[in-house]
Amino acid sequence: MDRSLSTRQILKFHIEAGADECIADQPLDRFRDAPAIDRAAPAPAGPDASLQGAWAMAAKAGSLDELRLALESFDGCSLKKTATNLVFGDGGPKSRIVLIGEAPGAEEDRQGIPFVGPSGKLLDRMLRSIGLDRKSVFISNTVYWRPPGNRNPTTAEMAVCLPFVERMIELIDPDVLVAMGGPAAKALLAQSEGVSKLRGKWFTFSTPRLASPIAATAIFHPAYLLRSPLQKRAAWKDMVAIKGKLDSF
Ligand code: URA
Asked: For FRET with 141, which of 2, 168, 220, 233 sits at 20 to 30 Å CA-CA?
């Protein structure tokens, strides 16, 4: 009996495993060149060590450029192994508003820039509706590398990136922080409710290194709005409220 798989079956297997697009002509085994395990060496760093390292590295960064360099050399988040590029953030370092999404997608991974795919196009339109553009805001995510197959980032992946996200917010020190979608709201606003309960409300974001707390809110994630266009009306109200908050300073 011929047990070999057809090309179609192999393709189906890859798509189901999350390898849903072709990004190069030749396959690249990202694990092949990983250093061999030295069994005499001390135990490799575990998640706690990665987390401690992340807080220490992020705290040392005195500018966004230094924070980017720190992330480029940080190996504590396994998403880095499968991603093509670091997706650090986009916008002005002195922006009055910082928006944090969930995780980079395929196009973001390719370009190394957040929100450049379909949901980014909608985000651009949402910003334009209140007189803002990508140069007047700073946009980033709860994790800095694309999760394979666009799966949701895990709690551990978000936790290990959080020190860098917090430091990014401290360095920019905006007037307003906006969490886009549930995972960002959970990570930044310390609230357990979903976005539909949090949107339209104001919270504060503070860290020991911030001179004063930052006004923070949550909005529907643009990708959700693409799937649920009826919610765009609520999203527009939220954008108007954000503009009102910015104008109140
Ligand atoms: N969705 C996100 O949450 N972030 C991106 O950068 C792109 C899509």
From this structure: 233
